[in-house]
Design brief:
The protein is an alpha/beta fold. The protein contains eight helices and eleven strands. The strands form three sheets. The protein has a six-stranded mixed sheet, with helices on both faces. It binds adenosine-5'-triphosphate. It comes from Gloeocapsopsis crepidinum LEGE 06123. It holds the Pfam family ABC_tran.
């Protein structure tokens, strides 16, 4: 099967010499829910930005197996326009795309309803909780009917209960729409709960160190969260993460270039 997104030997060095990614390979299948976890600075956001075309790679390539590719990005900050209502915020990408007002109104209403915010169309961001703002942000991503959803720690700033609720809602939406999802999180429990696969990355330079299939059926519910299987997967991911923390850097910077660290 041709992967929906395939990173081949992708490397990224920022202009200040930081080797954010080195020789990263990752194949994501159509309709897969894949989470990236790893220590701070290991390049998770860089991967998302490169997939989204928001950043250039220095070497390597991305192959796309998705026909009619439509990407949407959800950031950690809801980044809503404070002066605009919920419906106007959700309408923004359609306005930018020049979608007719009549069709856009239908899409906006559908997206707001999907994220459970019906009745709040005319509310302003200041009148919403953190979780509701994040729902608006998700609605704004969904309104364009994406087939690839890139989420960069979308629930990192939320309390645990709100995060759990949004996790369930995202899984419900995903089971209906079957987007290909690449989800960045620091939270092992969230990653295991949501994903078909958890990719563990290490830092300096950013690279994949483990690819763990979460072999548990969907729909996943509270029963799964309290199961032995879930706990075992969380422990496995956690152990991989701990192992990455104890590693020595593999690369060092030489001018604007980088090369393997000398073996000691
Ligand atoms: N624009 C930039 N210029 C220079 N270095 C950058 C830039 N953006 C990121 N970096 C560096 O690249 C590395 C990877 O950053 P990135 O944000 O992708 O990591 P991350 O795993 O998403 O981190 P976090 O979990 O803290 O959000 C880090 O060392 C970071 O300091």
């Amino acid at each position: 099967m041709i992967p929906a997104i395939e990173l081949n030997h992708v490397s990224k060095v920022y202009s200040n010499g930081t080797v954010a990614l080195h020789n990263m390979n990752l194949a994501i299948q159509d309709a897969e829910f894949v989470s990236l976890v790893g220590p701070s600075g290991c390049g998770k956001s860089t991967v998302l930005r490169i997939i989204a075309g928001l950043g250039q790679m220095n070497s390597g390539s991305i192959d796309w197996g998705v026909c009619d590719r439509k990407l949407a990005f959800v950031f950690q900050e809801a980044a809503l326009m404070p002066w605009a209502t919920v419906q106007d915020n959700v309408h923004l990408p359609l306005k930018l795309a020049g979608t007719s007002k009549k069709y856009a109104d239908v899409l906006v209403q559908q997206a707001i309803q999907r994220v459970g915010l019906s009745g709040f169309e005319r509310s302003y961001p200041r009148e919403l909780s953190g979780g509701m703002k994040m729902r608006v942000s998700i609605a704004r991503a969904l309104v364009t009917k994406p087939n690839v959803l890139l989420m960069d720690e979308p629930f990192g700033a939320l309390d645990e209960i709100t995060r759990s609720k949004l996790n369930r809602d995202v899984l419900d939406l995903w089971s209906q729409h079957r987007w290909t999802v690449v989800f960045v999180t620091h939270n092992i429990y969230e990653a295991v709960y949501l994903s078909n696969r958890v990719i563990v990355m290490a830092a300096r330079p950013g690279r994949v160190v483990a690819d763990i299939a979460i072999d548990a059926p969907y729909p996943r519910n509270e029963e799964f969260r309290t199961s032995l299987l879930y706990n075992e997967y969380c422990r496995e991911v956690s152990q991989c993460l701990m192992a990455t923390m104890n590693e020595q850097p593999l690369l060092h910077i030489v001018g604007n270039d980088y090369s393997p660290s000398p073996q000691i």
